[in-house]
Amino acid sequence: MTTDLLTNAPEVEAPVFPPRPPRQGRPTPHISSMDEYKKMYEQSIADPATFFGKMAQDLLTWFKPFGKVTFGSFKEGNVSWFLDGQVNACYNCVDRHALANPDKIAIIWEADEPNQHVSISYGTVLAEVSRLANVLKKYGVRKGDTVAIYMPMVPEAVYAMLACARIGAVHSVVFAGFSADALRDRMLDAKCKILITADQGKRGGKTIQLKKIADEALAECPSVHTVIVFQRTGDAAVPFHPPRDVWWHDETMNQRPYCPCEPMNSEDPLFMLYTSGSTGKPKGVLHTTAGYLLGVTATTKYIFDLHEDDVHGCMADVGWITGHSYIVYGPLANGVTTILFESIPTYPNAGRYWELVDKHKVTSFYTAPTAIRALRRLGDEHLQPYNLDTLRVLGSVGEPINPEAWMWYYKVVGRERCAIVDTYWQTETGSIIITPLPGATPSKPGSATLPFFGVDVAVLDPQTGKELVGTGVTGVLAVRSSFPSIARSIYDNHERYMDTYLKPYIGYYFTGDGVTRDKDGYYWIRGRVELDVINVSGHRMSTAEIESALVQHAACAEAAVVGIPDELTGQAIVCFCTLKTHTAPQATDQTLLAALTSQVRSHIGPFATPKRIVVTPDLPKTRSGKIMRRILRKVAAGDVGEEDVLNEDVLRLKLGDLTTLADPGVVAALVKRVATSQ
Ligand code: PRX
């Protein structure tokens, strides 16, 4: 394991911001003191069965009560919650609110163009979801089948997820920024027979050719027999191939607007979502019904401090876990209004988020540090025209938030009256696991602070696996015992699940992140401990995926990809490529560099665009042929200059031990290439 991220972890000194008292006319926070948090947290760890048993009864509606609350362990890899209970996620997110209050607004869809939005009631969601559920049944989808969803940010994306949940089908949402190859691999892996997609998507004034991309993917997925196509733009030039392709509007129009909910066992799968790991092959993280639903319902309620009339604005895409948990399942299970935002924060200008907050009276707002940094850079004047008075909670997710961005969020957006919640979690944890609670937790800019209920956090020595107890320690972040929303498996590959998360440190769930526990017991996330997973603008990807895209280019012999620090995006992608000998003269050829870039974009998606590609005669390798990424990362980040290469001692100081390098001369050549290529 590469642990240089963890050595020399800086002493953490930070100002402390006590929770803001509720303003006149605002609700009292659900958890309103540290004592209350501590008491509940201790109960949740000491007796999780009683704590979560009660919470599951209070927050969810069950078709059949559960028996044993929790069973299994990380050691055995058989974690289960709320055994033998029967529940339906769609019923909890839609029906129970629609039956009580059909006119209450469930979703506000803010379209790409700022003057267009639509408010959709719980009653309408119930009817639309039911119609689509009946269409899915008509095309043979049954409980346990997997349905692929490749949709833009339109309400129909949410209907598609909920329609699957309603009939017990497992949805596999593929982010609409993924390429045809990525979509194909995910549909094949999940053995999907049905795809739900749209003609085109709109984002920041641009059109995304979803159906065309889907068709390319489908050409190599013969098992997909039906493609349901929603018309987002209605462009007549979009390809359509009956009988495989059917129009969403034609099909739903003919279905009854009610469909009964399938009673699901608590441990039946609800969805899978692919995420990047340390190999090139993405893994389908599998979440089950009751545990996931309880996790997101409870975290949304307590962390965003949701009350009956609140409007929750999570700016993520439903194609990522943040969208699943905090646009769809969490807010809807709580019966509040959730915002679905089709556009980007800078379209048509950098005031877009704030216009949205003002117009829809958003009470809790959730975005990523990369967006906060970009907006901060564009200037405070973009906030001036808007009234942000309704905001109470501002959330951050996806990567560490630097203190400067935190302060800007707190002062300029929150006007020093809102709680900032820096929420740490992962696709695999399903819901937030380390976070402040508004109303209770004093915050420190840059720290995700303290664990959520039921999350028994441990800091381990990466080498020995021993627990580092007490305060002022840095190691890898692990969890000691299961909590309801933790992923149960990797689709069709339980062994990989065990190997990735549960076997590195027996008895613990291993997050893959480094962490410091400071003198007050607060947690500071230090990023991934392995260098083969990188985080660009909160998007997690594996270096192996990008490398495998590059080596598929005819000119590329070998590729090594590293993440370097980037002020805006957190990390940025730098690729080192060696060329096949017959192509060597083209090494600095711009056409070649452009071709390699587009190779990555078309194999993964535009969000994986490299910041820089360096063509080099050789890569630094050990005698056994292993690429030394540590060296590449430092050279790429500009930590080593051309003059440093001349002095062995300086080089050792900057790059560490180089004696294992097969050819020490390679470093000088690399530094030169980086200095001369742009
Ligand atoms: O490295 C951590 C980082 O994002 C990883 C999880 O990525 P993903 O599964 O794509 O989910 C992203 C949204 C939950 C983590 O292993 N990460 C996430 N939130 C934070 C964070 N790093 C620091 N602080 C956070 N608040």
From TrEMBL:
- In Pfam terms, one family for this protein is AMP-binding_C
Q: What reaction does this catalyse?
A: acetate + ATP + CoA = acetyl-CoA + AMP + diphosphate
Q: Output the SUPFAM superfamilies linked to this UniProt entry.
A: Acetyl-CoA synthetase-like
Biological processes per GO annotation: acetyl-CoA biosynthetic process from acetate
InterPro entries, alphabetically? Ac_CoA_lig, ACAS_N, AMP-bd_C, AMP-bd_C_sf, AMP-binding_CS, AMP-dep_synth/lig_dom, ANL_N_sf
Domain (Acetyl-coenzyme A synthetase N-terminal) spans 37-93
Q: Which UniProt keywords apply?
A: ATP-binding, Ligase, Nucleotide-binding
Q: Where is this region: Disordered?
A: 1-32
Q: Which residues form the AMP-dependent synthetase/ligase domain?
A: 95-482
Molecular function (GO) terms for this protein are: acetate-CoA ligase activity; AMP binding; ATP binding
The entry assigns this protein to a family as follows:
Belongs to the ATP-dependent AMP-binding enzyme family.
In Swiss-Prot or TrEMBL terms, this protein is called Acetyl-coenzyme A synthetase
